[in-house]
């Protein structure tokens, strides 16, 4: 047990970083859920790994901003591939997602082992992109996570109404002169942003859970999108903080899986006791 | 047999077993269930370890089978309670997988089971982990497990060939003429879980997902008929394993990662050049019609 952590300045950054990261993912995830793109976000996350590795191979330095740029590029390529496979062949969306997830991630692992064979020791830490490790974050990393998440939350809040209309009723949105494809693109950028910023702390394998689970839990409490996004944000923030704290306090617990597990507990609780569609409510109503 | 041959044989068996089983899932639009199960069997393996305190084949197979079916069941129940299917799959598999990974870190160094192993497997250790009975060496355990699961899967497909075929192509009609559709569904889920756990130890979750989905999808671009599709999918699985191994040996990189990449390259070829469905071939044909 390492209680010094609570007092260290670094810990305060990890606290705020995981809080805002969870909040941003929960809010953005609500739109992802509405657009039925939960599993596409999982593909984006897995596809971030080769991007990170390629940046290291090309520039031979460990620079988080560069890694995140690489991750963004390969995530967008993966999304584009999924769309073109579905569009140009008879492969269905789910198979296309599965293909892209496994092939991109497999290629990422190939690059990771290539780096381990061929470079001089300072690659340590690339592994932590797989499952995330809050303990390995330095202050500048956490600051990046915090500020990035803040920007995501602000942009989502600013265009909340526009996103809502262009998802629910694209025809109407076009009718009143909204640039729907622009907002679809912006939303895609936000999702990629949320995934990429989170991979250091949660890891590429499980970051999508932070987009999927909190909004799904929120759905058991409310039917209004605004309320759902807010609740999802709060659930995400609770998961982020409790996961990050637990994994720092108890040695060797991987951060990403702990955060996801906290979100799963919240989901399970909501599934049972949610005030709108929870199982308990359903049972009571039937009596 | 030599060290290299054992590894190639293991990879090919994974390709064949997963390729044949997975092609059924691609046809039934259940690829992501395969993805989910191949992640969650980790929990089954860890659970089996906590119960039996060993990493023996049989408890692992049972644990993985149970968790695999549970995964399918949870997804099904969430879906029927009104959760959209992609989100249902997402929440179930990430939860169970995260639980598995966290539990692994409690096992610590007692046994050879860690998160990296779970993802990437240890195919290079396969030839060392052999089956010994009365001091006689019968070859790697992984090969035995894969061989048994392969035979079992082929046997089940052979027995229920008609039922699987009808319920895949026309579930409504199948229900109407009394084919046990739900039984076939869970039969397939069991086959997927078994294939996964037999492959898991040697090649890890990544390659299992790749081999379950990619060869089936590639074969689906090359043929329209059911039986050839099964054969082709198995063949493409083996081919991916062979190409991937060659690449991995040459560059000295992860074997399972490069087998997954090889399957991706084969898919890309089929996507572009398939005589019937290839993008480029269709473009050329369209031009011929136009002129």
From TrEMBL, chain A:
TM spans (from-to): 12-34, 39-58, 64-83, 95-115, 142-160, 172-191, 197-217, 229-250, 256-275
Chief location of this protein within or outside the cell: membrane
Pfam family, one: ABC-3
InterPro entries associated with the record: ABC_BtuC-like (IPR037294), ABC_TroCD (IPR001626)
The organism's place on the tree of life at top rank: Bacteria
Keyword Transcription regulation included in the entry's annotation: no
Membrane topology: Multi-pass membrane protein
Compartments in which it is found: Cell membrane
Leader peptide range in chain numbering: none
Keyword list, A-Z: Cell membrane, Membrane, Transmembrane, Transmembrane helix, Transport
Family of the protein in this entry: Belongs to the ABC-3 integral membrane protein family.
Name the UniProt record assigns to this protein: Manganese/zinc/iron transport system permease protein
Organism: Aquibacillus albus
Lineage, broadest ranks: Bacteria, Bacillati, Bacillota, Bacilli, Bacillales
Automatic annotation (TrEMBL), chain B:
Keyword Transmembrane found: yes
InterPro entries for this protein: ABC_BtuC-like, ABC_TroCD
Membrane topology label: Multi-pass membrane protein
Keywords assigned by UniProt, alphabetized: Cell membrane, Membrane, Transmembrane, Transmembrane helix, Transport
SUPFAM superfamilies: ABC transporter involved in vitamin B12 uptake, BtuC
Pfam families: ABC-3 (PF00950)
Gene3D superfamilies: ABC transporter involved in vitamin B12 uptake, BtuC
Family designation: Belongs to the ABC-3 integral membrane protein family.
Protein name (record): Manganese/zinc/iron transport system permease protein
